[in-house]
Amino acid sequence: MLHAEKTLRADVAVIGGGVIGHCIAWEARRSGRSVALIDDAPGQGASWAAAGMLAAVSELHYQEEDLLELMLESSGLWPAFAADLARAGAADTGYLTTPTLAVGADAADRRALMDLRAVQQAHGLQVEPLTVRGARLKEGLLSPAISCALEIAADHQVDPRKLVVSLRELLATHGPGAVTAVDGATGGFAVDERAGSLLWENGRVAGVGLGHGRTVQATETIVANGLQAPTLGGLPAGLHLPLRPVYGDILRLAVPRHLRPLVTSTVRGLVRGVPVYIVPRQDGSVVIGATQREDTVSASEESLTADTAVSAGGVYQLLRDAQVLVPAVSELELLECTARARPATPDNAPLLGRVPEIPGLIIATGFFRHGVLLAPAAAVICRELMDGREDRRWAAMSPSRFSRPETPGHDVPDAIDHQKEPA
Amino acid sequence: MLHAEKTLRADVAVIGGGVIGHCIAWEARRSGRSVALIDDAPGQGASWAAAGMLAAVSELHYQEEDLLELMLESSGLWPAFAADLARAGAADTGYLTTPTLAVGADAADRRALMDLRAVQQAHGLQVEPLTVRGARLKEGLLSPAISCALEIAADHQVDPRKLVVSLRELLATHGPGAVTAVDGATGGFAVDERAGSLLWENGRVAGVGLGHGRTVQATETIVANGLQAPTLGGLPAGLHLPLRPVYGDILRLAVPRHLRPLVTSTVRGLVRGVPVYIVPRQDGSVVIGATQREDTVSASEESLTADTAVSAGGVYQLLRDAQVLVPAVSELELLECTARARPATPDNAPLLGRVPEIPGLIIATGFFRHGVLLAPAAAVICRELMDGREDRRWAAMSPSRFSRPETPGHDVPDAIDHQKEPA
Description:
Two copies of one chain form a homodimer.
Chain A: E1 7-15, H1 19-30, E2 35-38, E3 53-54, H2 65-87, E4 100-104, H3 107-122, E5 128-130, H4 132-138, E6 148-152, E7 156-157, H5 160-173, E8 179-182, H6 184-187, E9 197-201, E10 204-209, E11 215-223, E12 244-254, E13 266-271, E14 274-280, E15 286-289, E16 310-311, H7 312-325, E17 333-344, E18 351-354, E19 361-365, H8 371-386
Parallel strand pairs in A: 1-2, 1-11, 2-8, 4-13, 11-19
Antiparallel strand pairs in A: 3-7, 4-6, 5-6, 9-10, 10-11, 12-15, 12-17, 13-14, 14-15, 18-19
Helix pairs in contact in A: 1-5, 1-8, 2-8
């Protein structure tokens, strides 16, 4: 159908089909809006390498109180969000209330985790110290040489790959015709997002131009395409989206039958100051991750977003540190090494909200390490903005907070913008 | 063509399409014989995870003098074999006269390598000690902390994957119609080798039965299917082929431009007694390997031959030890982790030659770590056997040396054997 038409109309155009874009699209759909979800490789970006830890408590960092509030908000939304998905007929999303065990390797790691616990407690968060013996009664394969263990019952998990697949299926089936996914997979309509440009009409954003003169016209356009957001054409002039790629390597491993379950909790370790986590999945496999690299190891040409090069040093570090916590990791089968770039901002908080003076446009990117956790909150915030409501609690996430205020208006769209603002 | 015919006729039926099977098939073809090469997954077995080191000198092990003679023989054949392939129009086989540097990490490694050198010298082999400074003048990225370095000019390399591809192309094009490759890829004719059984006729092997009643009739049948050899039906009674799988993990890594070339020699290290090698390829990538595991890490059902499970501990060990020798390995891009099982024998020498009293049958398996190096010699030996000549130098490789001599004759073939020996 889309092949014949040059223009697709929807209430909401969501640019970007990762976990964030899918959750926003689903929330918009649930609120009765029609949605076009635009991505030529849905779920293949940062979402593909996300472990899916819903770790508001253990991911607390010093000096990030605004972000903590949003993380706790979204953590609180997750159970209902997951339940609603199941009720709507979603396939398995891998949502599990697996508890989290924070584990230190040496004395300095113990001190760091105990210091952090003081801050966590000051925020009213539950972090319970266990004896090493107590921890090993819960997790028999934990090394006896660990220095400390803390139980964090509130930090759970979801499987980001399963989540995208089930949201995709839900969107495709929930009200036939109402939702149109515009992508190579379902529409045979490949979209080159880099060539895409926002459409402007009477001073407001009115959708997005695709390749070959095709457009999606929408009342609201939501920019949720992660690191690619700044490369979108027709962004408001002066809007500075300071995203940088922070690379992460992630491993997927199969646990031989005689070692199952390897762990029953998500084990988040600090090994000589370096973080590592081991997330047990329902199928008996585990995911190991936590590397953060600001530089790419790509042996070919460098690219801001397309870099999926796995670091040999990163894989080595993950296997080394995971074995310090759970020695049996060396006996697992390595199924997959994957790397992706996450969109980081200068203050580690997302760029989330409206751009002042620009109707029709919402920005939702820069979720860095927290995209999966923050997705339900991002979806609710976007829906409320479309309803005309703005929750002032999230003002600190404003997408224009790094922009110069003295440059109103917007760029003159380039040749790819097929519905130029008269300006 | 094969679809319509139930029987294919060839002078030689080669069972198994790894490096060994392909080299034998090519040598048979060069001698004017028609060849059927039978494999449902050519090149996907042990050959797929072979580094391709032609390392007769550095692979010398104590008490393996018979094997050494065969290795040196094949090492001597390699230059002409590679040149003949090129002359016949082969695509790039990755044959390179890269020298080898044997490197020790600590004092005990130095002692081990120097002790081995004494044996190598006793066999007249050239192994030249370098100072660490001298070694680092040749290889700038070698760690200054190594304990010793020895140059072995005679140990070269080939790319086993490229070798199989080019032999395959040569076989397919060399004399149309004369060579028929029977496999899923080129014939649309899937062969389940496990169901295959040798055909018998008047007391001699006369080919091999495939699935669905199809057969390959041949004057000579060569069993070159690695670990699967003992599972072949209709093997001579009492012929004991004591093959066991020895697993190995291998890594392929891309070297970023600023680190090229990572090494110009093949670096074979001994790191606290554990071997590791770094093989530089022509395209700038490197292959790292050397793990040997007798046990599988497979998380699913165990299988003698189909096990391709990569060991997390193996990958960790390879990355750890390679970094000890060349620290910049941590900055490489990890492209691939692969594992395969190699067919090992009790004395580490191949099962290569005729079975006494059984005309029409040649065994060529059990090449363990040395398949790529030994392939030209195996091909020549098989061709000479087909010519009616037997080189007594290789009597120690007899495939029946582990069999009880008191059981002549052969098994009564099972139902899959469509041309039963009248017995």
